[in-house]
Design goal:
By secondary structure, this protein is α+β, with helices and mostly antiparallel strands. The protein folds into 2 domains: about 5-215, no CATH class; about 225-265 and about 280-290, no CATH class. The chain has 7 helices and 16 strands. A 6-stranded antiparallel β-sheet has the order 3-4-10-7-8-9. Helix 1 (about 5-15) packs parallel to helix 4 and helix 2 packs parallel to helix 4.
């Protein structure tokens, strides 16, 4: 049985979930809290709260092309940057920005690499390029404990990424013998894949890599936001996000950012005309965003 640690609980309280009111990204990176490291046998097992949110997330998965016939690799080592292919490109702006954000937020993580024009480390019938080769993947190194995954450190990061997949633009997360796919959900890694017990593999969607998702357009990735609407999503000045559609509301601009359910229908008899009201003139209010 997986037992929640003080680290997991403390970080969970500080992490935002799209659609949850009044939860914000912190203005300062999450401190590295030192507790006893715990390696839990078996694969990464997200809590029910993460599973519930994950069931609402959908992110299109765009995988890299096959190596042949347009490219080739000079080494059989899948981790050698030995491939040549027209699809190979350096890390996109969103990839680099998210890598920095996560290492500042979880200061026990260290850089594991972004771009490398190489083949996928998983053995497949048709060799493909790695998502690292097309500039949309991040490896985040997680300290190990007794040669196994430290779940007190890796689980909170992986859970947060899945819970905010649409908001950020995450198409795949791989950690501790398990993966989450933006189209298919959770699954166990096959024997042909690395167990990923010492690092979290994160893949951005095309929109996320190009900084076109609310996480980037709102300024949340650098903790600098202005209240505004993005479709039904209300981005608040504190960089938290609320989906107005969850309460059947719309996101409208205004002076004071807030989220509320639509007003109840009027109880006034339909045959009764509303009393005339005097029109008052006042200076225009500053723009605001709210769910109404």
């Amino acid at each position: 049985m997986r037992r929640p640690s003080l680290l997991a609980l403390s970080l969970a309280l500080a992490l935002p979930v799209v659609g949850a009111c009044d939860e914000a990204l912190p203005t300062d990176p999450a401190p590295a809290i030192e507790t006893g490291a715990i390696a839990i046998s078996g694969a990464w097992a997200p809590p029910q709260s993460t599973l519930d949110v994950a069931a609402t997330q959908y992110v299109p998965v765009v995988d890299p092309p096959a190596i042949s016939p347009l490219g080739h690799c000079t080494s059989t080592n899948p981790f050698a940057c030995s491939c040549t292919h027209p699809a190979c490109t350096a890390a996109y702006p969103g990839t680099a920005a998210l890598d920095l954000f996560l290492r500042q937020r979880y200061q026990y993580l260290s850089a594991g690499g972004l771009y490398c024009c190489r083949q996928n480390s998983a053995q497949t019938s048709v060799p493909k390029l790695s998502v690292h080769a097309i500039g949309r993947a991040i490896d985040l190194m997680v300290p190990m404990t007794n040669g196994d995954a430290d779940n007190t450190k890796g689980d909170p990061v992986a859970n947060w990424l899945v819970e905010n997949a649409e908001y950020i633009g995450i198409q795949r997360v791989i950690w501790d013998k398990r993966y989450w796919n933006g189209q298919r959900g959770f699954g166990l890694l096959s024997s042909a894949s690395l167990p990923h017990t010492n690092h979290i593999h994160v893949e951005l969607s095309v929109a996320g890599a190009n900084k076109q998702t609310p996480f980037f357009t709102s300024g949340a990735y650098n903790n600098s936001c202005t209240a505004h609407c993005e479709g039904t999503l209300l981005i608040k000045a504190n960089c938290s996000a609320t989906d107005c559609a969850n309460t059947g509301a719309q996101c409208l601009r205004g002076r004071r950012p807030r989220a509320r359910a639509p007003p109840p229908p009027s109880r006034r008899p339909p045959s009764r005309s509303p009393a005339p009201r005097r029109r008052r003139w006042r200076r225009s209010a500053r723009p605001r965003a709210s769910c109404t």
